Amino acid sequence: MSALIDCEHLEVRFRTEHGDVCAVNDLSFQLQAGECLGIVGESGSGKSQSMLAMLGLLADNGYATGAVRYRGRDILNLPRRELDQLRGDRLAMVFQDALSGLTPTMRIGDQLAESLVRHRGLSRAYAKAKALEMLEIVKIPAPDTRYCAYPFELSGGMRQRVMIAMAMLCQPEVLICDEPTTALDVTVQAQILRLLDGLKRHTGTAIILITHDLGVVAGLCDRVLIMYAGRAVEVGNTADIYASPQHPYTAGLLRSVPTLGGDPDTDLPTIPGQPPDLERLGAGCAFAARCGHTFGPCTEQLPELTRVGPAHIAACHRVNGP
Amino acid sequence: MSDTVLQVEDLSVHYDVRGGGLLNTRKRTLKAVQQVSFELRAGETLGVVGETGCGKSSLGRAVLQLVRPANGRVVWQGRDLCGLSDRELRPARKDLQVVFQDPLSSLNPRMTVGEIIAEPLRIHQPELSAAERTEKAAEMMTRVGLLPDLARRYPNEFSGGQCQRVSIARAMILEPRVIVCDEPVSALDVSIQAQICNLLRTLQRDTGIAMIFISHDLSIVRYMAHRVLVMYLGRLMELGSRERFFARPCHPYSQALLAAVPEPDPGRPVSQYADPLPGDVPSPLDPPSGCVFRTRCEHATPVCVSQQPALELAEDGHEVACHHWRRLGGHGAAT
Predict the structure, then answer these.
(1) Which of A63, A88, A123, B81 is the most exposed place for a label (fewest CB within 10 A)?
(2) Do B14 and B146 share a structural domain?
(3) What is the rounded distance in angstroms from the CA atom of residue B42 to the CA atom of residue B62?
(4) How far apart are CA A57 and CA A174, in angstroms?
(5) Contacts of B193 in chain A (CB under 8 A)
(6) Would residue B333 count as lying in a domain?
(7) Angle of helix B252-259 versus helix A186-203 axis, rounded to 10
(8) Are residues B281 and B309 in the same domain?
(9) Structural domain of residue B144, as residue ranges?
């Protein structure tokens, strides 16, 4: 089966006063139809920038190299017009901050209908019917009334539902969600996660979920890709990675998260130090300074992603070494 | 009780807001906190949890008199802080400190980190010389895990986790008796959260400071708090020991909160979560009659509409405000 999205050696750089900063480095992954892939990392790990690059949404001083193929077609170097046809139609994105993703002066129903008129050439009346149907699918109460509401009149959870409705309108094959529940309360987060899970099951839409929350990943994702300082450090099935993380960063992250089952009387295991400055990365493994298992090559040589199990890879010298 | 450091009685916080009506000039009262009572014991951490708009931050600020409560008492060393003038409050401020969520914006960008940490000394212990202040600040930096060499740097050169360490150092330098931490780790990366949580726990062990730890994250509260206070729309829903609360929460809202926590366990996918609470939190400007939680509660009956539930005492000193808590048991563990 060929992959829906095939990302190869993606590199994202930003031009700054101090020279170029590399935000994403040699990122390769595949997304299969119908699966949910979690991309996990801390701020500055490159998780959001890699997705923005895929959709041609980088800031003006950013540029991407490498190849991102959607159904075999390179979308990284697509002319603007062709990309516009894909975006919002076949590939859709939901952002963390739903308020800034919606036009404040336009009724939400009109915003929804517009994308159908534009991408599908539907008549206004038919687009409206479709939009109402979608508001119902994302479980917005009283969709007829909400259709005429402005974004500021809706709560945070409701706006996120509208964003998801808008993204799902054209039945995209890939839905990229960037921290979709981070700004929401835990009970509303549970509603949105349930909604995404239902969409995945019933529409077969593949989801890429960008998050820092290992709980959200465990609840929703089939596979997970862990990023650190702009690189993928571990990729595998969620169950495998949680059961036996191979990269010390992944292992450290999983241990440092407080859970409802852990022993609250002992201190949390922590990862010492802090994420590195992307402008000052050395030659070796970017995690070496915080890692308790370093040896010879760690500070000199970049570890490559190596197979550590069926469908499980990790970039750590220890995987091959002592 | 002899080991009570702070007694909060019937505390209410109201804000005047303008909005609605012709020309948006109608004045309305937002009741952010309503009649909340609790005691804070020496050396303990009281976790305050709830969702956006539940009044947990307002409660923390009212305890410190950073917002003046509309009603109620905050008794500190035999005196009610609520009636005191800013000047009269000054000695108490030395003992009651705060750490906010946003580490960078709560630090003055024009002061060096060393100056920021020493600033409370300048105000409250003017007898100290500049050299003594610097020395104390350096000592405090070491205790919170910052190299004293960094004292001449400015906050913008620091990461979020380091800024939070600076905030903690500033709060701790006067050796206060109570510290209010308002979402102190929410803005930090996962790997840094655990560091800051451990630091706060270590400082508490070393100094016996009492802590009010405000957070929306129940997993972190379980790890930080000895007792848990749950708020919803300005009202106290449940208050009890950590052990009892997490094993057998009494209030249906607490049960729903716990059930919604995404656990890092792939064996528990979203499809197996309990049904999430329906709807959103109602507007605090227009809270429901009776029990404020009733519009989202599957157990609500007519009495919940007509009558506000009183705070009742369950076993183990647990307090709960629900008409039906006995029926709902608090026996069915939510986790």
Answers:
(1) A123
(2) no
(3) 19
(4) 16
(5) 256
(6) no
(7) 50
(8) yes
(9) 107-173
Provide the shortest C-alpha distance from residue B226 to chain A (in Å): 10
Question: What does the pLDDT read at residue B97?
Answer: 96
Q: Which pLDDT score is estimated for A233?
A: 97
Mutate to test the interface with A, among B189, B251, B254, B298 (most CBs of A within 10 A): B189
Beta strands in B109-255 (DSSP E): 178-182, 210-215, 227-232, 235-241
Would the pLDDT of B215 be above 60?
yes
CB nearest to B264's CB, from A157, A197, A254: A254
Distance CA A250, CA A229 (A): 13
Beta bridge partners of A7: A29, A68
Q: How confident is the model at residue A1 (pLDDT cuts 50, 70, 90)?
A: low
Please check whether residues B56 and B165 belong to one and the same domain.
Answer: no
| pLDDT digits 0-9 by tens, B236-285 | 999 999 999 999 999 999 999 999 999 999 999 998 888 888 887 888 88
Q: Which of B173, B207, B229 is the last residue of a domain?
A: B173
Alpha-carbon distance A240 to nearest alpha carbon in chain B (angstroms)? 9
Q: In terms of domains, do B129 and B247 share one?
A: no
B102 in a structural domain: no
Same domain, B180 and B287: yes
List the CATH number of the domain containing B315. 3.40.50.300
Write down which residue in B173, B206, B221 finishes a domain: B173
| B chain contacts of residue A254, beta-carbon cutoff 8 Å | 264
Name the average pLDDT for chain A: 91
Q: Is the pLDDT of residue B199 over 90?
A: yes
pLDDT in tens, A217-257: 999 999 999 999 999 999 999 999 999 999 999 999 999 99
| Count of domains for chain B | 2
Identify whether B335 is part of a domain.
no
Per-residue pLDDT at A288 exceeds 70: yes
Residues in chain A within 8 Å Cβ distance of B190: 42, 212-214, 253, 256-257
Q: Which of A157, A186, A257 sits opposite B216 (nearest CB)?
A: A186
List CB contacts (< 8 A) between A141 and chain B.
Answer: 279
User: Which pair of structure tokens corresponds to residue B333?
Assistant: 């563990």
Domains along chain A with CATH numbers: 5-90+170-319 (3.40.50.300), 91-169 (no CATH)
* Closest residue in B to A142 (Cα–Cα): B279
Tell me the nearest-neighbour CA distance from B46 into chain A, angstroms: 14
Distance CA A14, CA B10 (A): 55
Tens digits of per-residue pLDDT, B86-124? 999 999 999 999 999 888 888 999 999 999 999 999 999
Q: Tell me if A117 sits within 8 A of A131, measured CB to CB.
A: no
Closest-CA residue of chain A to B278: A191
The ipTM assigned to this model is 0.86
Q: Give dist(CA B252, CA B241) in Å, integer.
A: 17
In a domain, B218, yes or no: yes
CA separation for the pair B203, B212 (Å, rounded): 14
